[in-house]
């Protein structure tokens, strides 16, 4: 990425891709500068259509120079101005990245237009692992660089490295091993003020060939990307551990609740059984228990028996009287 155009962003992109390839990394490069897509030309490839082949559901990048290459130059007219509106620009970025068959690509380099364009914000919304910023020592370039830093902070995207391109001009000295700073000219400003930056001198050979050795930068970026991935894995593991702990606590609480529910159910069951038993058992009484109807019948029979006995006694009394009368 770059805050200002003309800083050599595309040159850095293609040479970084080639350096990573030489380190046996499987690399893809996507030219997402819709206005001026120059990756294919900078790589020295003749046919712009090499950048894209449309499959059934996926865009298929070309395999050239040991790289997987996709360029938006294939979907626009090379010699005509590009007039898409912002919404359409932003949409094509997501489509190119997400709908392309990148296969086993390990590192994907996105060459973006300068500034805070729709292409740039569309890419940032996809959460890349990091950004390499390309700038030069000129005060205006640094002013635009600061704005890009604010944008990246807003999206929480790390800056992997700041490259100070055209940092200085150093003409060839007749003394082969000369390292004198007096032979160096800071054309755009003092590049020594930029600490922890990768500096590339202004060199006519780079302008002619579009080639610059970025092996050291490639190695440094690989290590930084590894560190980022390790941090992400540790963060994910820590988050998973917290979630596991929370889940275990929730399960323990649920087990307690279930235990209480079971205890209440058992208590309620016993109370219901007790009530049922009390309904079935008659109240306790003294003496012999019997059916009320039977008791009434027995009582009636006893009364009848007593009445008969009384009548018999009367008859016995009457009979002697009759006998006496006869006498």
List the keywords.
Rossmann fold; 327 residues; 3-stranded parallel beta sheet; elongated; single chain
What features would you describe in this structure?
This protein has 327 residues and is an alpha/beta fold. The protein has 2 domains: 9-213, P-loop containing nucleotide triphosphate hydrolases (Rossmann fold, 3-Layer(aba) Sandwich), CATH 3.40.50.300; 232-274. It is 50% helix and 13% strand. The chain contains 8 helices and 9 strands. It has helices at 9-22, 39-42, 86-98, 118-124, 139-155, 204-209, 215-280, 292-326, and strands spanning 27-31, 53-54, 59-60, 62-64, 67-71, 107-111, 131-135, 159-169, 198-202. The protein has a 4-stranded mixed beta sheet, with helices on one face. Strands 7-8-9 form a 3-stranded parallel beta sheet. Strand 2 and strand 3 (59-60) form a beta hairpin. Helix 3 crosses helix 4. It is elongated and about 170 Å long.
